Amino acid sequence: MAACNEFYEEISRDSIKDFKFISQGAFGTIFRARHQDWGIDVALKILSRSTSFTQKELLSEARAMDKARFLYVVRLYGIFVDKLHLESPRVGLVMEYMENGSLSDLMKQVDFIPWALRFRILYHVALGMNFLHSLSPPLLHLDLKLGNILLDAVLDAKVADFGLSKFKRGTFRSGSQASVEEEEYGGTLEYLPPEAFANPYKPTPGTDVYSYAIVMWSLLSGEELYSNIPAGALRSLLKIHIPKGERPSTENLEKIDVLKVQDVVRLMKRCWHSDKVQRPSFRGNESLANWSLSGPAGQLNFLLYKK
Predict the structure, then answer these.
(1) Are strands 40-47 and 149-151 parallel, antiparallel or unpaired?
(2) 41, 143, 152, 156: which is the annotated catalytic residue?
(3) Which of 8, 204, 228, 278 is the most exposed place for a label (fewest CB within 10 A)?
(4) What pLDDT digit, counting tens, does each position of 207-249 carry?
(5) Catalytic: 111?
């Protein structure tokens, strides 16, 4: 197991066995597999052949990602290389395997997520994002969403796929073509901030904060945002309405009579502010991470563990 503390620039196909398909995503194909030498299950993400990125480019990005070793960030072990086809080797990432899948999966599988668990997940995500933004230079996620928040065996949440949004360029999201905004910086359309629809657009830490607000809305409401709107229509609607200041409805959220939920709703509205400068940060004395520690997560976390 000590070997897992290192970063491997090449993990060969020979060391990986027992491939089990998990999903097909914009990045490529995701498998659960077994590393024979380490004796643990890993998540294997094989880059889609439709992308134009090389092993060298992926390695460069992975080295930056390797700096993000933190309790609430999914661990990257190294680069997977399958040289079965020597002319065009398949490459990908070998990462920590998270037993309970994504937050998106959890919301589809259970009828009700306890409020204490919802707050704890938001707390863990804030801590993970705070760490990424505290690096020098800050590591922007640029695709923070329900599907990139993963849950381990005890439902602790970790941020995943940070820094990989650029590898979605030239690929299609499941069921829909990528928009111009997604092509340029990656990300997922419904999580993009209003400034992403302007030209020119350069992502900032506020980009991730806006995405966090959409995660908050989904977790509080128990719904996937815009899940009932066809992808083609959604793209057009968001490009018109989000820059005008329109946001998901909070009418039902404001009726929830649960301890501190309204504090979260107010914070969520600050996080999706039209002016990126007015959004709170994941860093500093007034950061989202500090709010989470002293706010609902800190007060309700004990409910998960009381006997």
Answers:
(1) unpaired
(2) 143
(3) 228
(4) 999 999 999 999 999 998 887 787 778 888 898 999 999 999 9
(5) no
